[in-house]
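Technical annex, item 7. During the second reporting period the consortium partners agreed on a shared format for inverse folding records so that results from different sites could be compared directly. Each record opens with the tokenized structure and is followed by the designed sequence. A conforming record, contributed by the partner at site C, is shown below for reference.
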């Protein structure tokens, strides 16, 4: 079979689908990967055919804007600067590279060009959701900033936001393109963006139980714990630091966050107050304090799968990938959600009893230190972390998702010729 993977988004959106694509490639399937030029080197490193949707510089210009991290501006910004410019490109690339008999397209919810291609071109489409926040439910509404109160009030807020913000942002561009293709207009985008054929959720039911009003063609697998470089050994410098004392607290504001200076200032202060060692992860060294204490070390990148089992806790932005890795490692986590799905992920972590979260305005050294001390020192939290880690035993979310997508292709009668 031929699989076209086309995730639109950050590294946290692209890497899990890359992990699934690599599994399917090893099973003998042909893979074409359509995404931003920023990921070309990574994709081609694994021998996959790569097609660029927008240049590397375009991707970086989107990541380097503060609106990406503002909860009231992020959605509109992501669509206008990240999704809209590649909408037609994604559709055209799928049209060019798909074959009628044996192609399955795998896309994230922001892959709107893929969703249109499914309708117009008749290609088989699997929508992959990495986080539960993108599936609206009136029974169990997801957590977003400003959406508070009883369930009826949350649902009213979501209904207004859907009509006045989401559809007003996306529908004009999407429907303009649809008219060009001879398709009728659509509305309620956050319901339309699910493939009518198969939706695969890369999170388990114990993290986000399926609701009666979720799509009926939905399958939950497990978290895709795939890190770039997972199979490589830790560098001697990392190994030396880890062996040099008690397990460190790991801090990361997210791989795409280029506005992390206050986060790292609070991190260093918290480590000093707690007299604990720390690891700061970022590729943007300009965000770091000029002088770090000897007990706090900076590294550009360390695969979480190898690092977190050796850590005392993870402090992060609430992204679903970081959240899942901490759950699998069985360590407490403290989130500082900024936008997107991060508030919902953080709320679920707190309900599981394995962590907590702070809004950015409260993310200061003394408060972070107090929260971490309470989490790390709580036997109840540690027990909950251990129980949660046991849920991952013997499971591979990447392999399970690959199985589901492969079986979907087989059920559709697609061939591998």
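Designed sequence (site C submission):
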């Amino acid at each position: 079979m031929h699989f076209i993977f086309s995730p639109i988004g950050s590294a946290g959106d692209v890497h899990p689908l890359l992990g699934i694509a690599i599994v399917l490639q090893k099973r003998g399937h042909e893979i074409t990967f359509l995404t931003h030029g920023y990921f070309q080197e990574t994709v081609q490193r694994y021998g996959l055919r790569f097609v660029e949707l927008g240049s590397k510089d375009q991707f970086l210009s989107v990541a380097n804007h503060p609106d990406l991290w503002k909860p009231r501006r992020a959605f509109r910004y992501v669509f206008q600067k990240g999704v809209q410019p590649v909408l037609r490109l994604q559709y055209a690339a799928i049209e060019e590279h798909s074959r009628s008999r044996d192609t399955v397209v795998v896309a994230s919810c922001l892959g709107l060009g893929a969703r249109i291609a499914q309708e117009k071109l008749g290609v088989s489409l699997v929508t992959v959701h990495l986080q539960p926040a993108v599936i609206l439910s009136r029974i169990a509404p997801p957590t977003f900033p400003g959406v508070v109160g009883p369930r009826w009030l949350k649902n009213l807020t979501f209904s207004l936001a859907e009509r006045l913000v989401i559809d007003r942002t996306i529908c004009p561009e999407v429907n303009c393109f649809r008219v060009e293709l001879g398709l009728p207009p659509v509305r309620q985008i956050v319901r339309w963006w699910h493939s009518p054929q198969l939706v695969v959720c890369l999170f388990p039911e114990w993290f986000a139980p399926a609701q009666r009003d979720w799509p009926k063609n939905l399958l939950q697998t497990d978290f895709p714990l795939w890190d770039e470089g997972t199979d490589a050994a830790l560098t001697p410098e990392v190994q030396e630091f880890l062996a040099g004392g008690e397990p460190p607290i790991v801090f990361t504001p997210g791989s795409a966050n280029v506005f992390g200076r206050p986060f790292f200032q609070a991190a260093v202060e918290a480590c000093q107050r707690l007299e604990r060692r720390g690891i700061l992860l970022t590729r943007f060294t300009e965000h770091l304090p000029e002088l770090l204490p000897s007990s706090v070390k900076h590294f550009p990148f360390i695969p979480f799968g190898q690092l977190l089992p050796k850590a005392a806790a993870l402090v992060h932005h609430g992204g679903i990938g970081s959240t899942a890795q901490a759950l699998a490692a069985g360590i407490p986590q403290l989130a500082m959600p900024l936008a997107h799905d991060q508030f919902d992920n953080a709320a679920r972590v707190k309900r599981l009893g394995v962590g907590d979260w702070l809004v950015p305005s409260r993310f200061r050294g003394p408060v972070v230190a107090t929260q971490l001390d309470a989490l790390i020192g709580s036997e109840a939290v540690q027990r909950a972390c251990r129980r949660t880690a046991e849920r991952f035993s013997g499971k591979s979310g990447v392999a399970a998702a690959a199985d589901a997508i492969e079986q979907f292709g087989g059920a559709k009668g697609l061939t591998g010729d």
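The longest strand covers residues 30-35. The two ends are 7 Å apart (CA to CA). All partners now use this format for quarterly exchanges.
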